[in-house]
Each structure stands twice: as C-alpha cells, then as structure tokens.
Design goal:
Length: 69
C-alpha cells in the first residue's frame, strides 16, 4: 500500500508530536490522581508509538527505494 506524501506527513506528525505529548500528559495526570493502570497504559502507548514509527520508517524506505528505480 502506498501512502501519499500528505498522508505520510500527517501520520509522521501524529507519531512524532501528538501521541508522545498526549501520552506524557496522561502519565502526569494519571500519576497525580492515582488513576489505576496508568503504568500499563503508558507502556502500551509507548509500544504503539514505536510500532507506528517503525511502520512509517519502512514505508519511507520503500518509497525512496521505489523512487530510485
């Protein structure tokens, strides 16, 4: 599946800026208010962000490899 440049840029922005900021905010609120399972949510969220980053990296590498050929 090929992503358009606009879609890739939006997903990259979400992965690099939005999700880490939201996860950090949730972690601070969760720790302050003693929300149950905060640590589990942070761990799963960090894994999801890393996974999305890897998927986008693979997509980017494939795009540039296809562009060279």
């Amino acid at each position: 599946m090929k992503l358009s440049n606009k879609t890739y840029d939006i997903l990259k922005f979400i992965d690099i800026r939005v999700l880490p900021a939201l996860l950090t905010f949730y972690g601070i609120i969760g720790a302050t208010l003693n929300i149950p399972y905060t640590q589990a949510v942070l761990t799963i969220g960090a894994g999801a962000i890393a996974c999305l980053g890897q998927i986008l990296g693979i997509s980017s590498n494939k795009y540039y490899k296809d562009k060279e050929n």
